[in-house]
């Protein structure tokens, strides 16, 4: 652990250590001078924030100095002050600083160009590419975007690009499996609620709420599998297995297509869900695949299942 921490740049470590120090200083002021708690805590947090920004700036090599680091530290100062001392929220500098930092992040995101061919990407790919420009933690935001995109399938059908759609669910038993899982979850959830309520009423309802969300998630997952086929347009191939796997690539990137052979294609990434793959695609350059729970792959060989492999092969026409 110490070895890994030592590998982190020094200015980065300082930017993450300052909130604990600021909170200790502010609490010391509030305990020692209760009558001036708000004013002294306010001054202590401002001083700590500015000092940390200065230290971080001095310890950062000139070639690596950007506006992002001080703005991030300032944002943490605003958040800590507002959360630790509610009476501090009346000060105008908090609102102004928060708005300034938010505007800086917004401008940074708007200035970040969208990837080439943005309009040709699949819906999940476009969502990731557009919104992750506004954050420094893209993986955390992607988890929220994925859940939102998945849950929308309960009420809306996805907007598929114009082209030829190929089903991927012939012979799948996912519906029966999900039905059994939902039934079992309902029974288990009711029994768990009764048992937990004897111990803690709030814990019982929290558990029931989580269980209900799990049921909704399963329904959305199953519906996504049925409403997101593989699509071929005049210039792009959209690879989908519900939202379990999502990716797209130009059709010109397909080098070879052949029937799937388990022994020969063991190195291929299998995107078929609950069905046996029947085709293998080989690509010239790696294809970016976005998977469930933020899984990512960049394979040059993909195994998949389509209900009509002959029509799919004819429509793809690889070069």
Quickly describe the structure.
The chain is 54% helix and 13% strand.
Question: What is the fold's blueprint, element by element?
Answer:
Elements: H1 2-6, H2 10-32, H3 37-59, H4 68-84, H5 92-111, H6 123-131, H7 138-151, E1 164-166, H8 174-199, H9 201-227, E2 230-232, E3 236-241, E4 245-250, E5 254-259, E6 269-270, E7 279-283, E8 289-291, E9 296-297, E10 301-304, H10 309-316
Parallel strand pairs: 6-10
Antiparallel strand pairs: 1-2, 2-3, 3-4, 4-8, 5-7, 7-10, 8-9
Helix pairs in contact: 2-3, 2-4, 3-4, 4-5, 6-7, 8-9
Structure, explained:
By secondary structure, the protein is of the alpha+beta class. The chain has helices at 2-6, 10-32, 37-59, 68-84, 92-111, 123-131, 138-151, 174-199, 201-227, 309-316, and strands at residues 164-166, 230-232, 236-241, 245-250, 254-259, 269-270, 279-283, 289-291, 296-297, 301-304. The protein has a 6-stranded antiparallel beta sheet with strand order 1-2-3-4-8-9, with helices on one face. Helix 6 (123-131) packs antiparallel against helix 7. The two termini are 51 Å apart.
Number of DSSP strand runs: 10
Widest beta sheet: strand line-up: 1-2-3-4-8-9
Please tell me what the overall shape is.
flat
What profile does the largest beta sheet have?
6 strands, antiparallel
